[in-house]
Design goal:
4 strands, about 20% helix
Length: about 120
């Protein structure tokens, strides 16, 4: 995930992640940026579909402006992944490089021992 969005998520400033598709994933996920696992957040719901104009009424949740939403949507509906319980780790954890672009990566071998095992995705 690109910065500053990754930091905004683990800091609790961004509670909706805008995507072009819904997700059935629920539970904790890792937030990876720049090859490092910086924290986690829980996916609790997926709302939508929305038009960019509808999403602008909720800007305080996703922090995206019209200049981002309109070209990102490309005339298609968008979805809001609802996020809760953000946590920034005290130290980022290096993530081994993966080939190609990936949405979900199994990070189970990287998670600190004291984190819940349920639903770990990254």
């Amino acid at each position: 995930m690109r910065q500053p969005y990754a930091s905004w998520i683990v800091e609790g400033k961004k509670t909706w992640e805008i995507r072009k598709h819904p997700t059935r994933i629920r539970g904790p996920i890792g937030i990876v940026t720049g090859g490092r696992l910086i924290g986690q957040v829980e996916v609790v719901d997926a709302l939508g579909p929305f038009t960019p104009e509808e999403l602008l009424a909720h800007r305080e949740k996703h922090l995206a402006d019209r200049a981002f939403l309109l070209p990102y949507a490309q005339g298609k509906p968008l979805w809001a992944w609802v996020l809760a319980h953000p946590e920034r780790y005290p130290e980022p954890i290096p993530v081994p490089p993966r080939r190609g672009r990936m949405m979900w990566v199994d990070l189970s071998g990287l998670w600190p021992d004291d984190l819940p095992a349920k639903g770990r995705k990254g």
